[in-house]
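Milestone M4 deliverable, item 7.
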Amino acid sequence: MTAVHALIHLHDFDDGSADFKLIGVFSTPERAARAQAVTAELPGFRESPDGFLVVPLELDHGPAAEGLPMDLHLLFRILEEPGHGEEVVILGAFRSEEQAHAAASAYHEGPPEAELEVSPVDVDERTWTDGFFTWYDEE
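Output delivered:
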């Protein structure tokens, strides 16, 4: 089974909520580590270096001769939790948008109020290339 490696960053806030950022999907753990090293130097990321995770994802079933495509579609489950932000879970990586939507149609687990989203990604390219800053609203 072919696998890809999603590099994500979770930023925890003082109120217990968290923010999810997909940095990119990479063909090898080494490429994910190189992307992490570059991203860790950006504002926001350098202040929370422990937030990086590399998540291996099995690619959907396809002919082994196809190899690893350079573009994939990720299926996400997103649940808005009042007072805690969004809970984001990557459910799978697919070779085509049609396969990702078919998987979404067949998915019946998790909270019914969760939204499913299909997003295209380019393999071995960072999707998040800027830093970030945290704005605290003072009430």
